[in-house]
Amino acid sequence: MSSEITQLLTGAGGAQAPFMGRHTHKLDPKKRLTIPSVWRSLMGEDGVFLMPGIDRACLMLMPGSVMTQFMQKLQGMMISNPEEMELMLTLASESDHLSFDVQGRIRVKDEHLAYAGLSGEVVLASAFNRIELWNPENWEARSSASTGLAAAARALKL
After folding, report:
1. Among residues 33, 80, 106, 129, which one has the fewest Cβ atoms lying within 10 Å of its Cβ?
2. What is the CATH number of the domain that holds 83?
3. In which domain, by residue range, is 31 found?
4. Contact call for residues 23 and 69 (beta carbons, < 8 A)
5. In contact, 147 and 154? CB cutoff 8 Å
6. What is the tally of structural domains in the chain?
């Protein structure tokens, strides 16, 4: 296993401890979603950052440390490049910072719920440094279309 993967899995070297597992929760009548307590503790007390999935019909939840790393990559973009400026504008204007209520729930804006097709049940899938929120039908379609773990491991040369 590569040292980068080992670091990610152990949280060593200042890396964010990984999110692991998958849960299915329902949006409550006020469209709030409960985040599992173990994941909330990894997110920290400052809440969570939400972004639409990039080329995926899902939403991404990230702790502040991961969002900071993401923003540092964006800061290297050139303001003289129209495509890079458009990317920064779109990502920033479509993202949100959410706080947990006392019961560990977040309220996702209606426009974000509509983007990912979320209503009723939501699949919360960990992706090591983030959590993805999926419509159950889209999750199943993604799973069916996946080339599998072995192909992903080969691609990463694990």
Report:
1. 80
2. 3.40.1550.20
3. 3-155
4. no
5. no
6. 1
Task: Give the strand pairing for 58-62 and 48-52.
Answer: antiparallel
**CB-based burial of residue 63 (10 Å sphere; 0-12 exposed, 13-18 middle, 19+ buried)?**
buried
Is residue 50 a contact partner of residue 102, using CB atoms and an 8 Å limit?
Answer: no
Tell me the residue length of the chain: 158
pLDDT in tens, 24-74: 999 999 999 999 999 998 988 788 999 999 888 999 999 998 888 888 888
Residues ≥6 apart with Cβ < 8 Å to 11: 17, 18
Instruction: Take residue 35 and report the two structure tokens written for it.
Output: 């985040």
* pLDDT tens per residue across span 95-125: 999 999 999 999 999 999 999 999 999 999 9
